[in-house]
Write a structure and sequence with these properties.
alpha+beta, about 240 residues, elongated, 5 strands, five-stranded mixed β-sheet, Heat Shock Protein 90
């Protein structure tokens, strides 16, 4: 009996040690992700306030040069017009990259406003019809808002760029102490395990991030049958 009690005690100690290690792993993982998002925020601000403003000034100066040129300097005017167009395109690309890195609307107005911006910008970029339904949401922690925004962003990128979807439906609901994000598309579909096994910043990476907050990511798909993505995360992560 003493030996059995000792084994039970050792087993219980092992379980407690594993639980402590799991909590520490999640804490460290969330800390790493916070650092990554802070770096995204800093880079986005540098692009917008630094490079973006310099390009704006450069475009203004080129415009002044164009206005000052005599009307008969056709070649010079054509060269300046090309430079102005290139400067304008680069400025637009810089602003778009800044918003994709970390859209200011996410920090300023919250998750719902950021999702509406994301859906609108993705629809304009890929030409797909994207619908968004958002339930009334409780006050959300900033990290949860960022987490669900990144999952939605990756799902829409996957549907538009890789699945060639023409119709995408995004739904965010809050119930039973958690948040659930669903993204359904009519694209070419995929093998779920293969998509999740890629890791990195794709759907597999999103699954690992959700796990850090006690969440789960599920995919239902088959080649040619579109993709149904469901992400659920508790309002109070462990």
């Amino acid at each position: 009996m003493d030996e059995l009690a000792s084994l039970r005690r050792q087993y219980q100690e092992l379980l407690e040690r594993l639980e402590r290690n799991e909590r520490e792993f999640r804490r460290l993982g969330r800390a790493v992700w916070r650092v990554q998002e802070d770096e995204r925020r800093r880079l986005a601000r540098e692009l917008h306030d630094g490079i973006g403003q310099n390009l704006t000034v450069l475009k203004h100066r080129l415009g002044q040069l164009d206005d000052a040129l005599p009307a008969d300097r056709v070649d010079a005017r054509a060269a300046l017009a090309t430079a102005l167009a290139l400067c304008g395109d680069t400025l637009q690309d810089t602003r778009e990259l800044s918003r994709l890195l970390r859209p200011p609307i996410l920090d300023d107005l919250g998750l719902e406003a950021a999702l509406r911006w994301l859906v609108r910008s993705q629809a304009e970029a890929c030409g797909a019809r994207i619908e968004l339904d958002v339930d009334s949401l409780p006050t959300l922690d900033g990290e949860l808002q960022t987490l669900l925004f990144r999952v939605a962003q990756e799902a829409l990128n996957n549907a538009a760029k890789h699945a060639a979807a023409t119709h995408i439906h995004v739904q965010l609901t809050a119930r039973d102490g958690g948040l659930q994000l669903r993204v359904h598309d009519d694209g070419r579909g995929c093998e779920p395990e293969q998509a999740l096994g890629a890791g990195g910043s794709g759907l597999g990476g999103m699954r690992e991030r959700l796990r850090l907050y006690g969440g789960v990511l599920q995919l239902r798909s088959a080649p040619g049958e579109g993709l149904r993505l469901s992400a659920r995360v508790p309002l109070s992560p462990p």
